[in-house]
Amino acid sequence: LQHDPDPDAIASALALRTVLGATVADAPIVTCGRVTRPENRRLIAELGIRIEHVSARSLAEQENLILVDVQPPYFGGDVGDVAAVIDHHPPSGPFRARFKDVRPTYGASATIAAEYVLAEGDALLTRELATALLYGIITDTKSLSRSASDEDLEMFAYLFPRADHELLRRIQHPSYSPATLRRFGMALQHAHVT
Question: Does pTM top 0.85 for this prediction?
C-alpha cells in the first residue's frame, strides 16, 4: 500500500487477500509508511487488520508483490517483481507487472476489489468486508460526489444494505487522543481570518 494507507487501499487489500484465499501470514498487508489518520487507524482496529511496516528496500525482496491503489512509479525505485497492480488512478509512468488492472474511470479501487469478491460468489462478502469496501468507496469518491463512475454507484448500492452501519459510524467518528484535542484547541485559539 502507499505510505499512509487510506480506507480505499486498506479495504481493497483485505478484499484481494480474501479472494486469493490467503492467510494473514501468507499475504501480509504492508506499507513503507504508517497509518496516521484517526479514521484509518480506527478502521484497522475495528476490523482487526494488521498492516506491517516494511522498508522500501525490502519491497524488492518480496515475492509475488501485489500493489493495491498504487503503482510502481510511486515508490521511486525498483520494487522488484510485481505480480499485480490493482488501481483506479491514472498511470503515473511506465511499469511492469505480470497482471495490470488499472481503471482510471473508476472512483475507487475498492469498487474493483469488490467486483473480484463478487465474481467468486456472495459468500465471501462478510458484513465486515462489505463495510470496509463501502467505506473505501465513500472516502475516495467523497460520498459519490467526486469522480464516481456508474460502477462505483452500483457497487455502493450493492454494499450499502450489506454493511454494518454502526461499525461504519464508529470508524467515521473516531476518538481523538487528549494530545490531538489540545492541538485542535491551540489551533482554534490562535486562528485568525484574513
Answer: yes
Q: What is the pLDDT of residues 41-89, one digit of tens each?
A: 999 999 999 999 998 888 888 889 999 999 999 998 778 889 999 999 9
φ/ψ (deg, to 5) at 139: -70, -40
Contacts of 66 (CB under 8 A, 6+ apart): 16, 82, 83, 84, 85, 86
The per-residue pLDDT for range 173-190, each reduced to its tens digit, is 877 777 777 887 888 888
Give the chain's mean pLDDT.
Answer: 93
Q: What is the helix (H) or strand (E) element at residue 52, kind and residue range?
A: strand 51-53
Query: For the CA atoms of the chain, what is the radius of gyration?
Result: 17
Q: Give CA–CA dist 95/78, Å, rounded.
A: 10
Burial class (CB in 10 A: 0-12, 13-18, 19+), 50: exposed
CB 97 within 8 A of CB 104: no
